Each structure stands twice: as C-alpha cells, then as structure tokens.
C-alpha cells in the first residue's frame, strides 16, 4: 500500500525538488547581474527530472570525478548540480556578464508558477486520498 502511495506522489515530489534547485540557480543569476564575467546558468529541467525519476542520480547531484590521486570518493547526489548548464547569451556585454535580466525574470516567474502547480497537484492527491479513506 505504501509503495502505491509513494508512486502517486513521487513524480511531483521529484519535480518540486528540481524546480527548487532551478529557482536557486535563477535567483543566483539575478543576484549576480552586475558581477563582471559572471556566466548565467540554468538547469535542464527535463534531463534532471528524468535522472531523478530513473534513480540514476538525485536531483541536485552528480557523481564526483576524482581527477587526482588525493581526491576522496564521493557519492552520487552529494555534489554538483545535475543538468546545470551555461546559458547562451542573447547579446554580448562589455564586462563579460551573460545575465539577461528580462530572460531571468521571465524564467524565475515561470518556474515559480510551475512550482505552485506541483504543490497544488500534491495537495489535490492528498485530499483525494483522505476523501477515499474517510468515505
């Protein structure tokens, strides 16, 4: 029974985790809009969610690469950010900063709306389960 409940909520749970991670990256881009040579980043939401759902890695984590003999072995999900990519600048800037505030605000708002949608769906599923239990 608990496996079926976990399966019902798993997709939206994973989507919320990836959306939260993306919101943090977008907020970082906005905060660094005036930082010279800052490169705007974003998350490949689809790839990150697929990785989270397949169990090949937790959202927000990838396996660490040991590039030197003294490096410690890491576990998947402890470092890095899955699907984190550099954004292609629409227009170059003199200081090398690739943050486009209009694009960042739009992405931030769209991600917030999608996050709210996932929360609403989880609430609806829980209410539906409570209704079924209570009769």
Description:
It is a single chain. The chain is mainly alpha-helical and 135 residues long. The protein has one domain. Helix content is 55%, strand content 4%. It has three helices and two strands. It has helices spanning 2-31, 45-54, 101-134, and strands at 41-43, 84-86. A two-stranded antiparallel sheet has the order 1-2. Helix 1 runs antiparallel to helix 2 and helix 1 packs antiparallel against helix 3. The radius of gyration is 19 Å and the shape is flat. The protein starts with a helix and ends with a helix. Mean pLDDT is 83; it is low at 58-62 and 76-80.
Can you tell me the overall shape?
flat
Strand order of the largest sheet: 1-2
Helix count from the secondary structure assignment: 3
Largest sheet: 2 strands, antiparallel
* Succession of helices and strands: HEHEH
Distance between the termini: 18 Å
| Overall mean pLDDT | 83
Number of domains: 1
Unreliable runs? 58-62, 76-80
Write down how many β-strands occur, each being a DSSP E stretch of 2 or more residues. Answer: 2
Q: Tell me the helix content.
A: 40-55%
Radius of gyration: 19 Å
List keywords for this structure.
55% helix; mainly alpha; flat; 135 residues; two-stranded antiparallel sheet
SSE order and pairing:
Layout: H1 2-31, E1 41-43, H2 45-54, E2 84-86, H3 101-134
Antiparallel strand pairs: 1-2
Helix pairs in contact: 1-2, 1-3
């Amino acid at each position: 029974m608990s496996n079926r409940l976990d399966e019902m909520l798993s997709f939206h749970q994973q989507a919320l985790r990836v959306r939260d991670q993306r919101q943090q990256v977008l907020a970082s881009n906005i905060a660094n809009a005036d930082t010279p040579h800052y490169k705007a980043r974003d998350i490949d939401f689809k790839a990150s969610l697929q990785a989270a759902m397949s169990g090949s890695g937790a959202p927000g984590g990838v396996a660490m690469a040991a590039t030197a003999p003294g490096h410690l072995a890491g576990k998947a999900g402890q470092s890095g950010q899955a699907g984190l990519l550099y954004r292609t600048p629409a227009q170059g800037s003199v200081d090398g900063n690739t943050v486009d505030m209009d694009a960042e605000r739009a992405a931030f708002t769209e991600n917030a709306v999608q996050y709210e949608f996932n929360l609403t769906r989880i609430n609806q599923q829980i209410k539906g389960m409570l209704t079924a239990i209570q009769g």
